[in-house]
Amino acid sequence: MTYRHNTFNRALMRRPADNTDAGLTSQSDVSVDNALMKQQYEAYTVALRDCGLELDILSSDDRFPDGHYVEDTAVLYDDMAFICQPPHPIRAGEPPSIAAELTHLRCIPATDDATIEGGDVLFCADRVLIGLSERTNLVGAEQLRAALHTVDSALKVDFVSFSGVLHLKSGITELAPGVILKSPDMHTDYDFGFTECITLPPEESYAADVLPVNDAVLIPDGFPTVGALADKHYARVYRLNMSEFEKMDGGVTCLSLRYRS
Ligand code: CIR
User: Is 94 in the pocket of ligand 1 (CB under 6 A)?
Assistant: First the structure.
């Protein structure tokens, strides 16, 4: 079974620039192999196309060393595109450049006092979770909730305060209906009683970020627990080498903005 919110036919993406290691990272002394990152990026595009998605891939732009993490720039829901506002100046130019590609949707921009990134937004089960983090403040979360409610006033939207990981989706994603994967590094009081919530072993923390697409799932390669769980739920599992993105705190969800057209 796939949820409607994991059903897509199109995605917007941006190719990595040549200066990706000028982007933000929580890790020290990282050195990104840009050639390898571009290979890994191509493999990701092959997987998404194989899942049935048509891809609109923007050219790389050296003004945006984190620009390929397009998921953080907008939250798409039916005909609505909420345009996010990353707090770090180095990422501030990304959302307007993505909004320019989304003019076929009803764009609602975050206001200046809001900070919000799409990595903090998870559609799962019967609800949308918005993480309150160093990237997303309460103003941003409230504005996104209001924007979502312009599409569906009955949509259940919960705020999730957490710490220990960058984005909400660095800490939890929904592998399959009724199954959430959780990084042991993420700390929250939110009650996940509505679903099965599997806390991963510490060495697989990075793999809490998985991407179900239509009837398949994309996961980072090299994480046996997550691989076995993915195999249990899906006939098609794309294991992607994400080593260069991981150095910059990027996971499989963050490289594309998926939607139905
Ligand atoms: C950043 O720290 O903003 C980027 N280097 C990584 C963003 C990853 N985005 C995501 O997981 N949604």
Answer: no
For ligand 1, the distance from its centroid to the CA atom of residue 259, given in whole angstroms, is: 20
Query: Cβ distance 223 to 209 under 8 Å?
Result: no
For 66, other C-beta atoms within 10 Å of its C-beta total 25
As a whole number of angstroms, the distance between CA 131 and CA 58 comes to 28
**149: annotated active-site residue:** no
**Main-chain dihedrals φ then ψ at residue 83, nearest 5 degrees:** -95, 120
- Which residue owns the Cα nearest ligand 1 atom 7? 250
Q: Pick the catalytic residue from 51, 84, 124, 254.
A: 254
Specify the ligand 1 atom closest to the Cα of 88: 3
- Is the pLDDT score of 1 beyond 60? no
| pLDDT 10s digits, 205-248 | 999 999 999 999 999 999 999 999 999 999 999 999 999 999 99
- CB burial of residue 258 (10 Å; 0-12, 13-18, 19+): buried
Predicted confidence at residue 3, as pLDDT, reads 61
pLDDT value at position 5?
84
